[in-house]
Write a structure and sequence with these properties.
By secondary structure, the protein is an alpha/beta fold. About 35% of the residues lie in helices and about 15% in strands. The protein has a ten-stranded mixed sheet, sandwiched between helices. The protein has a three-stranded parallel sheet with strand order 21-22-23. Strands 2-14 form a two-stranded antiparallel ribbon. Strand 24 and strand 25 form a beta hairpin. Helix 25 (about 590-605) packs parallel to helix 27. It is globular.
Length: about 725
């Protein structure tokens, strides 16, 4: 079989805009009766989702369904099917082209379980918040049931659950490394990230009669292949032996063969802003010292990651694979990746093509301007769907995030390149909300996205941006090439407030305060017009060690922002407060770090009510830290750096208790820990004390009074 080989030049680069959008249905059909009403004998594509079907661009199935409909295909939806048999998957008949399967807007395991592995009592994406309407690992189960319903049908999996499980990954809930979801779901192809381009191109080619097994050149896709398969003219780079093979000399000799993809000389200085600039100039293309021929060769190279069997048994190799994976995440220079699953004749590779190209502003406007009904499907009647209620009066203005926080999966799914809508498109949607949303009182509850204030922020140097290997544009310092202007966002806020019928616009998305410090005008605008008493920000910690392992700015930046926000709130005549979010038990945070954070909170009068314990989600860098105890942010040459990890249930509870130092329920645990840490001076009733005197519980469950020596300082 002839394979296409030119990844950068294939159909994946084509626009998603149709020549002329097709007619639309009031809702995409969820029953045969609705199909009959539309005059359909069959669907071209059937989308299966673990969420209730809400026809709104904030919900993935609605967005891709309307996009496919605009290109002329008949799209049906099977929402929250009973997965215990294949019968529910036969409801709309056999699709002419494929089943498109997702778990929904959330990973099904995150949806089902807390960070303590306890079952959640509700599901925000289900009518009346009813739990238990989707299975664990829903994408895998749905794919298997779809094929059981119609043997031989093409199955395409995607959305966040598939994105985060596209290679071998640590699974917190089973406490082991699991295979790629492709191997378990036995799907024909996986679409990861923002998949509009790949989805439209794939559907065109399937509709034209191509066999899915021959479609191997689309960006943002993954598929299973023989271990010896690769396109003609491609080179394979084995990353497995990188730790032993790489030396400064070998990298200088051929940096393109370095799976770590970075300069050792610059790596020493990553804590300084000067190195920040240097790191951006090392790997520029033409004009930066790398010949065009070598750039072309790079585009036709694939990196072989350590196999599933290797990373399953060796946490060091797992961390190494995670490091290489994340360094191959920029669509401008990322190489293909492959990872073997299995041994012997039955072995197969998961092959990952480079990430999808970001959408243009025109394309972003198009997908958000499709004819959504902007409400749940009528089949749900008057049922309350919390996720819908939360976003029904909010507007998504961008996607992607260049922050790179190690605990966050946004970059792994949406990418690090921010893609923004035009002001005109956003204002049209505000008017649409005003005119078509029952109960709208004039309050737009958010103009945001993954981050509230990254609107239109991109690299000012397109060539450097395409060559960059950094994992964050703002850590350890804000890149000098990043356009941090808040001018377009301030202009948008002012224009949005002027839309007739809009009385108030508040910002519900989290704010990146290190960026906001670049624009006093933005802080003033925000404080004066767009905060209803409380503003969410996420410093996450106070100590430099944990913050570095999170790739978050130092706490000084938060203190500076807090002072400016308070000043501007006073100027506006408003009493407003920040709501800071913190993470307990993040990799790299010791008991001493959490104690210092508790004292920091107490000194500033913060008494967090709801706090987050670190939840290791598949594929993130912080999850690699949690599983391996190794920092993948640092080079493994000459040796990996070990870090503290709170893995045990008791230690994780202690870290959470430090965040809620004011809660009497946590005092026994904190007293015991403080004594063990040699900080009994913090137990008592003095102003410097963290918890009052009382009884401490020992591990056997018995209690004892603190000794007079332990009370001496009080």
């Amino acid at each position: 079989m002839t394979q296409r080989a030119a990844l950068p030049d294939g159909m994946e680069g084509a626009s998603i805009l149709p020549p002329s959008p097709s007619a639309s249905a009031p809702f995409l059909p969820m029953s045969r009766a609705e199909m009959d009403g539309l005059g359909w004998a069959a669907c071209d594509i059937i989308l299966v989702t673990g969420d209730a079907y809400i026809d709104h661009p904030s919900f993935g199935m609605a967005l891709v369904g309307r996009l496919l409909e605009a290109h002329g295909w008949k799209v049906g939806i099977i929402s929250q099917p009973d997965w215990r048999s294949a019968e529910a998957f036969r409801a709309l008949g056999r699709p002419r082209l494929y089943f498109g399967v997702t778990s929904g807007n959330m990973d099904s395991m995150v949806n089902h379980y807390t960070s303590e592995r306890k079952i959640r009592s509700d599901d925000a994406y289900t009518p009346d918040a009813a739990p238990g309407k989707r299975p664990d690992r829903a994408a895998t189960v749905y794919a298997q049931r779809a094929r059981e319903a119609f043997p031989g049908v093409t199955v395409v999996i995607g959305s966040i659950e598939a994105s985060l499980r596209r290679i071998a990954h640590y699974d917190y809930w089973s406490d082991k490394v699991r295979r790629s979801v492709l191997a378990d779901a036995k799907a024909d192809i996986l679409l990861y990230g923002n998949a509009e381009r790949a989805l439209v191109a794939l559907t065109r080619r399937l509709a034209a009669g191509e066999d899915v097994s021959g479609i191997r050149d689309l960006r943002g896709t993954a598929f299973m292949a023989r271990p010896d398969w690769r396109p003609d003219g491609w080179t394979e780079i084995n990353a497995t032996a990188a730790d032993a093979r790489l030396s400064p000399a070998s990298v200088a000799e051929d940096p393109l063969r370095d799976p770590y993809g970075e300069s050792r000389a610059c790596e020493k200085n990553t804590a300084t802003a000067a190195a920040d600039t240097a790191a951006n100039t090392v790997v520029q293309s033409a004009g930066g010292g790398i010949a065009a021929a070598r750039i072309a060769a790079r585009a036709r190279s694939v990196i072989r990651l350590p196999s599933f069997e290797q990373v399953k048994d060796d946490p060091l190799l797992y961390a190494h694979a995670s490091r290489v994976f994340h360094l191959e995440s920029n669509p401008g220079n990322a190489r293909a990746l492959r990872q073997r699953h299995g041994e012997g004749p039955g072995a197969r590779d998961v092959w990952l093509n480079p990430p999808p190209l970001p959408l243009s502003t025109a394309e972003m406007d198009f997908v958000h301007g499709l004819p959504y009904a902007r409400r749940p499907h009528p089949a749900y009647g008057g049922a309350r769907i919390p996720a819908w209620e939360m976003i029904r009066y909010s507007i998504n203005i961008l996607r992607g995030c260049f922050g790179g926080c190690t605990f966050c999966s946004i970059a792994e799914h949406e990418g690090r390149i921010v893609q923004s809508r035009s002001q005109a498109s956003i204002l049209l949607e505000i008017a649409d909300v005003r005119d078509r949303s029952p109960g709208f009182s004039g309050h737009i509850t958010d103009l945001g996205g993954p981050t509230a204030n990254m609107y239109r922020m991109v690299c000012k140097d397109e060539k450097a941006g395409s060559a960059c290997r950094r994992l964050s544009c703002v850590w350890p310092a804000i890149c000098t090439r990043l356009d941090t202007s808040h001018g377009p966002l301030v202009e948008l806020y002012r224009a949005a407030r002027a839309v007739p019928g809009v009385k108030k616009i508040t910002i519900g998305s989290g704010l990146r305060y290190d960026l906001a410090l670049r624009s006093p005008e933005y802080i003033a605008e925000l404080a004066a017009h767009h905060v209803s008493g409380l503003l969410k920000v996420a410093p996450e910690h106070s100590e430099p060690g944990p913050l570095a392992h999170m790739m978050k700015p130092t706490i000084d930046a938060f203190d500076t922002f807090a002072a400016l926000f308070e000043r501007e709130s006073r100027r506006a005549g408003k009493k407003q407060h920040l709501v800071p979010y913190f993470i307990a038990a993040h990799p790299g945070a010791s008991d001493e770090d959490m104690l210092k954070l508790a004292l920091w909170l107490k000194a500033r009068g913060f008494r967090p009510d709801q706090v987050q314990t670190f939840l290791p989600t598949p594929l993130t860098l912080a999850t690699a830290m949690y599983h391996s105890g190794i920092d993948p942010l640092k080079s493994f040459v000459p040796a990996p750096e070990r870090i503290a990890v709170a893995r045990g249930e008791r230690q994780r509870r202690l870290h959470k208790a430090f965040l809620r130092w004011h809660d009497p329920a946590n005092w026994p645990l904190l007293r015991e820990a403080l004594v063990k840490m040699g900080r009994a001076d913090l137990i008592g009733n003095g102003p410097h004390c963290l918890v009052p005197r009382g009884r401490i519980e020992n591990r056997s469950g018995a209690s004892a009074r603190l000794s007079s020596r332990e009370h001496r300082s009080h």
